[in-house]
Amino acid sequence: MATTSADVPALPPRVSTIFEAPSLAAGLAASLAVLGVISIWPSAVVLYGMWVTDPLKSIGMLVPLVSLAIILLNWKTLSWRFDGSWWGLALLLATAAAVRFREQSVLVLILSPRWSMYFPPHSLVAFCYVAGAVLLFGGWPLLRASRFAVLLIWLVNPVPHVFNVYVDLPLQRISAHVARAFAIALHQKLTPDQMRLMFTPEFGMFIAPGCNGIRGAVTMGMIALIVGHLYRFRWRAHTSFVLGAVLLGYVFNFVRLCTLVLYYIVALKITWLQNRAEMGDYLIGGALFLAAVGLLFYIVRRVEEEPAMIDQELPRRVSRPDVESSLRLPVWRKAGLRLAAMAAFVALAGGRLAHGKLSKGATPPAPETVAAAAVFPERVGDYVRSRMWPEQVLNGPVIYEWADYQPAKRDQTPAHDDSPHIAVGISPVLGSHDTSICHSARGEDPVWHGELRTATAAGQESFSSSFFNNGATQYLEVTTVCNARGCGEYTSGDAHFGLIYSRPAPVEAFSRDPQRPIPVMLKVETLNTAMPADLARAELTQAMRNFLVGVDLPRMTRGYRR
Fold this sequence. Notes:
18 helices, alpha+beta, 15 strands, 4-stranded antiparallel β-sheet, single chain
């Protein structure tokens, strides 16, 4: 029997609640999720600083926006259904606790001498937060539909440090070699410096790390990754598309370098162009990038014509009756409870963040104020202080306050300058920090790494110890972190694989107004680079032990913890 429109049951009347319009409820949920970023505020600040200071990683700032847009599109396909799971809230709480714990402790995972990272890494924090928010509101259906967008969050740090060490610098040399070979093929006489192409003593180009094409390759790869998902490429086609886009970025960079060589040759005859070489580089690079993007979308159109490369199965839309049934009272209560829980989570995190900001003061102390607060005693055991100095970022805060100590004579005056000096550094601004990350970022490999446990004026304490030889000096560097329960930094494993960690007081890690963990660094060096490394390390370690036996680090750092 045929049915008419009159046989279709009428939809229930509209009610004056936000849950009657699921898109508005979803908008409220998305807004709360964005505000909830304050629960992982330290990681968010680090990521933002990385995006605005490192051009290579600046593309990462677009990842959260793209991920949010894709999640909302997928949620719209599911008709904004609230099928949330409380496991999402559990994951959000665990992520916020992990960030809080990281602020009070050191946990560095060493995978190789040049590859070490803090745990949890900021990419993992962002991934867990987004996954938790999606799971809380949309549940497993939305998480499955948005798995690409959630996994995309890993790319908030698009180029890990290990990539810089093993790929970025070698590519710089390759790019310089290509540009030099092209210039020589055009019969240009160049200086011997492999990284500089000097066409005259005053006019030339330097192949900097930014010239190796990695920025363009990362950007092209990111565009291909997102576009391939939006056009529903099958995984084989998608993988090939992304790899081809990365390769295209490198190829166009080599074209850019060769074109720039031609520009410099022309500028030798037209001197007006010589002072505008940097702008010329920007124009050449921009034009080639637009051409590469155009070629990329031409490939997309060609791939669309091949049905075997496109996933033809569209996401299932939820019908209107299903939507109406999902808005009955029990589901309203489920959605309302989750929105209320997220609002409470945001309020708690926001209150904690505001309390922390107010307790630290509205403005940071001036460098001279911080320097005056340094507590370096005149005498430490058999050593006397010879000088003090600040280590300051250009136009920024004092990162470390340093004091130099050297052995004293019987009359308590400094000994001769050949005696081993001990430098002690205390940071007035950094939180939990280990210098192995800094050395790794500079490509400096320790000759030896391990734990130094020695007696101090405050008792037995542990230090993370590293021995280096930079060709000019051999030096031993030991670090520790001082908190409410004392000082200590521990090492498990060796320089090729292991952990560096501290043991924070649990009360401080989760208290409302915790004391700041204070990183401490001590250095001792010798200029005798001909001395065998084992012997030099033994002598410097003994000098460090002799100094530490008279040092009370908890007392020395007490004034910095607030």
